[in-house]
Amino acid sequence: MNSQHHHFLFGNYRKLIALIAILFSALPLWAQTTHSIQGTISDESGISVPGASIQVKGTTQGTVTDMNGHFQLNLNSETATLLVSFIGYLSQEVTVTPQQTRFDITLKTDIQQLEEVVVIGYGTQKKSDLSSAVSTVKAEEANKLAAASPAQMLQGRTSGVSVISGSAPGAAPYIKIRGLSSFGDVQPLYVIDGIPGGDISMLSPDDIASFEILKDGAAAAIYGSLAANGVVLITTKSGKNNQPTRVDVNLYAGIQEAAAHFPMANAQEWYNILEQSYNNSIADGALTEANKPLYLQAGSGFDLSNYADTDWQQETLRQGRIQNYSVGISGGSENSNYNLSMNYFDQEGVVINTGSKRYNFRYKSSFEKGNLKVSPNIFYSHQTTAHNTIRMAYMLRSLPVVSVYDDSKESGYGYLNEFGIRSGANPVGQSDIIRNNSTRDQLQANLGLQYKLSDSFRLIGNAGYGKSFYKNRYFFPKYTLASDTRREDPYLSETRSEWSELNYDFTANYNTELGKHSIGAMAGIVGYRYDYRNLDMNVVGGAIFPDFGGLEPSFNSMQAGDFLGAGGMQTVTRFSVMSRINYNYDDKYLLQATVRTDGSSKFGANNRWGTFPSVSGAWKISNEDFFEGAKEVVNELKFRGSYGILGRETTLGAYSRQALVQSGYWYVWNNTPIGGIGSFEMANADLAWEEAETINIGVDAGFFEDKLFGTFNYYQNNSQALLMQEPNTPMSAGVSPPIVNLGTISNQGIEIELGYRGEAGDFQYSFTGNMTTIDNKVVELGSEEGVLPGGDIAYTGAQTFSKVGAPVSQFYMFKTNGVFQSQSAIDNYVGPEGDLIQPNAKPGDVIYVDVNGDGIIDSNDITDVGSPLPTLEYGLNASLSYKGLDLSLFFQGVYGNKILNVNAYESEAPNSGYNIASKLLDAWTPENPTSTIPRNVQVDNNNNYMMSDRFLEDGAYLRLKNIQLGYTLPSTVLEKVHFSKMRFYVNADNLWTLTNYQGFNPELVPANALTQGIDYGSYPMYQTITAGIQATF
Amino acid sequence: MKLYNKLFASFFLVFSLVSCDSYLEQVSPDQPTTDQTWVSYEAAEKYMASTYSYMQANGWRYHEYFYLPQNFRADDIHPEYGTTAWSYLGRIVGFNNTASDGVPSVMWYYWYKGIKLSNDLIKNVPEMDVLTEEEKESMVAEARFLRAWYHFNLLKNFHEIVLVTKVAETPSELQLPGSSKEAVYQQLEEDLSYAAQHLPAQWEDAYWGRATANAANAYLGKILLFQGKWQEALTALDKVSGHELVAGTEYRGLFDGSMEMNSEVIFSGAFTAQQMDALGLYHQLGVAMAPGEINGGWHMASISDYYMNALESGDIRKAATVVEHGETFDGETILFDDPEFNMSIKYMESLESITTNRSTVDLIFMRYADVVLMQAEALYELGRETDALSKVNLIRERANLAPSSASGTILRDEIRTQRMIELVGEGHRFYDLVRWKIAAEQLNASGQQYAENFEEKHQYFPIPLEEVQRNPNLTPTPGF
Asked: Is A140 exposed, middle or buried (0-12, 13-18, 19+ CB in 10 A)?
């Protein structure tokens, strides 16, 4: 869609230049005439080019063409060389001889300049020449969002890309391309400035110029075994040759606030619900008055009014500040260019004591000397994060009768263990006392070398070395935060890890044109080495001063304590050979083929090498002669098709194929700790590559000179021999699940991107939208039963299962049908033999559906109740501008998925020992018989509170991710202050959400592929409001 | 140009062909593989230490996942609201547990880990050339003892279990069918007989806590007793030698950590205060059993009135087992909010252990008193009442009680009552009630508050749902 954008701008520009040129050509010419020439200048299709410049080489003499592309020039001499140029076309030299006076010159389109060029991996390509599915996101579209991370810039911008940003400051984003295609890691490969394997959360959004997303097999195949999850190519900003020095500044600041509040009971509500639950169980005969805890017993002396009424969410959530400062300096001379950028980003978390800061520095440049081009690119990033040490699920359910602070307690934080009330760890105390901080440093140095052997033959080499350091420090002093949460001694743990990644590639590139045939070929090698070291050490007790006397705790100051250490090392290597051929006939028919062979040290000798081929083709029907008549309406139309096989190994650890022995098991002989060794691993020498077979059929079209433009793709992706932890490893086997190749998943669907741009006077508008449908299915699984259970949910076992013929990670749960409203409803709920299906039920208890009809509710009644995977994902953008004002809105949404609200499950049982949701006030009672909330009991004989589809909710949402209003100062004002651009804006993120979902946030980062759609409410989603300035001078 | 071409070609060839396979051969530089482990006696012994470590868990996990299901479901100890207020614990003691309940699955998970490590030793030790035949036999015997110990605990607790005697070597061997109780018992008898034959009767002090031939015989006797093979049980139990009942004056020392190594204990689970902060090799039974008013206890269970009523006056075991309102413990007078509360003090060493949430008293799995009472039971069932009476009177005498002269079912009940009084809080009572088929009766008789929920199916836990979900050879236990 961006190439059209360029056409559009270019079109206007051309008119403007023509106008200026004509004005100038009306000026009288005083030069003496010896040789008068004239002619027309037209483009390849014969259309005249107004405003083209005709310059006599070596002089200041020249002219421009008129509205009809006609020119006339009186030369001082009979021989001369004319330099004919016009923006968007290749400049031409024409020799003037005395005999010739008429010159009809055809300018050739400068394809490089006219057409958008996209990065495709080990090369670039004109966007219009793509035969595979590649999406581009330009920073100028996406950086309006006050994006905390590059991932946020991608969300909803293009079809086929699902993005969920981790909500805690500094948390990793979750990105998947075209559906869930593996049981293991589904994160795409990130390639930053040509170097694979980068971490995008370390980048500053202000540094990014564009994203290219390689979605189908043919596009991604050049990355072979790294590419099965799709590839995101990130190009950072660079300077341009012959560009005067320019400075870009981007500053913004704002606030963030948790977007939702989970309605928990206050003190009185808690008391009433608990009292009701005990009374109901006593009425059932399940308990006696004596079983009531003291706080509910008359005469115990308990008085609720002596206790606090704490809203723990209020106490632990806050308004956080966010600020960002970026400065970029760029420029270039004839043979070199540079870009230097610095960024500081500071985000306070919406949970107390959390936050993240990031400092970035990048220097990117390019030097040319003759045929040699050298491009160094140096990047340093430093990130510090204060992690949340509150267990949020427990925070929500902390008892309201506990006061936040209590001077009578040793640590100064409140807790209770009286009258039968035993509270858990004080969340505010947890956050204040327990410190968990990490820092990360990354240094990346890349060097690109390019040597032009001839116009058609180039050698290119790239090497990138990245070194990363991670440091985590976890400390707490001696504390008591509850009767069951106390530490007798201070504890300090430090983790250090460092890893290096060396990437290098060397390619030979050949391009030539033979008449209408255009051929490109590339062949090369790629190498990779990863080295990792880590060290963990912790110490308990032994502090020189028990309270550290205000000193920093360290291993020195705790030297008398008990020390434990661990650490190790890993190396991964990879080597690849690759080649690519492009063929273009007459700019109508395009063909591309690639093949890449990868070897990886993660595999045993049996299956170390994998070969990944792809082929794609396209037909630019709009360039056919017969299409000429339709061009007024359809200015561009291209059909594409591709097929490719990609590999995947990311699920594997460095030594997954080996069964390693671990230490760290302890037992006691003779009252002395004995350190044991043991292994629960299973060796697998036959591990092989995962393979993803992908098909893509697409159409790109532009209508009415690209006012309306669109892209359509149908995709199909079969991932097979999937690497995963053998999920059918029963506990009785005693081993950790071994990694095996197992199963096939297919994803298919369509992607549609549509846009419309227009203007009415000074009012300009554009609307773009994209949607992706995803039909995910497990095609085949290793075991006969064909079932893969997901992870345990809140100690209730697996609730998600992946079965053949159904989507991955489908919910299988007990199914409910409201609550029994009367005894007769219970009596009439009978099985085939006439026996009561729920003999323990009382009115107000949950009705469980006897799915298999055997008259008993047991684990055989667990059934399919929905999918956590959206079937439709979409994004909508609107940009409006009027003179200096601009307004943009960006909506994003998903449809067709379910979410398991674990917070609801955990907070809706009065016998849990924790606080409960205030909605239980409205539980079923004989006086409130229409309630669908089961009655409150302590002895849950009907298992009302067990995990069931009662806690499964519709996960669809439509969210206004971003709205921004900006004002750009007019140039008349700017000239006075010597700025070339200045824009002010206000911005709001996540301002409005339309959803039926009751939990914190329907945007969820899944625990793993097999356990999707589970909301633990671990860190609340937040709304952000910022104001900023963008300036250039 | 030609030079460049040549350079390019040779560069390409060198990288792509020559260096690849050695470049790609990477093995862990610092961790041994399972094949590299079996190289010395010390390495095998370290493997053995890990094999013991799954008998128990540390910290809160022990009382929630192991102690609670094994002790809070019978007539001698009743759960209190420190247990019942937490739904996942309340369901276990309230007999409305489901197949997906976490508490039994943790036992299942831990014990099968122990079995896995035992099987590694049993397979690999015989192939270690560096060991003498004697060392091999002893080590295999120890591993087979542990394998039997883990399986027996599973058998006592679950409706159906999987007998695992071999470590899966390929993914296709991971899922095994369930085994009949007879088949499991058959294997356990073989394992324990082998262990009894090849283990030392006693380890030197540095290895206190490791399985002995006496422990093997005692457990062999126990599993035979559970099967009602009275004569065989007696034969095995009679082979236990070198152990005796400690004197009545030393009795409390069995349970307060002051005398962990003694002639009565045959097999125990060990904890230690050494490197306590770093390794956390402690449990929390002290704080778990105390009520909130006693140094912030968690009020999880109490000794039942039924138990208290069974005590005869003058029984020295009362003071070693339970503290009543107004009695002295650890030098202080103990006053409860609820004067009727009876605090269990088995494995509670001090008031300090409540305050700090840490107890390091070893947990006794098998002691000579159990052997004597099992002998009494076997003798009684074999009709040798006089011999049975003399055994039970050994227990009574040590407890400072007059000898009994009971006979017939009164003698049987006396043996059972002495078992309860003697072994309360040591993980026996519920399983005894089940094998005597009087669990429901006794729960009701003792007034356990959830007795009416108890059905026949609650004698055993269902196979954990997670196991069934991952092992298609098993079917869910009906009714859960």
From this structure: exposed
